[in-house]
Amino acid sequence: MIITYVGRHLSVPEDFKPIAEAKLAKFDKFFRDEPTATVKLSVQKNRERVEVTIMAGGMIYRGEESDETFRNALDLAVAAIERQIRKNKTRLEKRLRETAVTEIFEEPFDDEPIIRKKEFTLHPMTPEEAILQMNLLGHSFFLYSDSATGEVNVVYRRNDGDYGVIVPQK
Hints:
The chain contains 4 helices and 10 strands. The model is unreliable at 98-111 (pLDDT under 50). It is α+β, with helices and mostly antiparallel strands. It has a domain at 2-87: Double Stranded RNA Binding Domain, CATH 3.30.160. It is globular and about 55 Å long.
């Protein structure tokens, strides 16, 4: 696994890297291709926060946790990703057979009202695959290209727990 470390307003402790590599190595068994991971460390409100994002086989797995130490937060984030994989095991096994690459870039945006800008490559997928990806990321909505129509659609989680899809009107 290729791991990139990012420290937000801090430098990543050198003794943390081998620990993170050992913890993330257990995910290698789930993927045929070599996955890439980004581990972001930050401190918020006197709590240490770790965000782990793994990109493999066209899917993005994400865990974000805070605790008293980076090591504890890393354990919680890795456990969250493992839960996501186990919860969606059947759908993931089907999806992981396909090969695709998803790239996410986070850049600051200069306009005042927009706080964060994310860019990513849209890949054709079914609404079910988009819902799976949304759940793996822990988001309440997900933008995707519909494989049947080629249109850009949005799936979202409704307040009642069901899912909805937003389709552009022609």
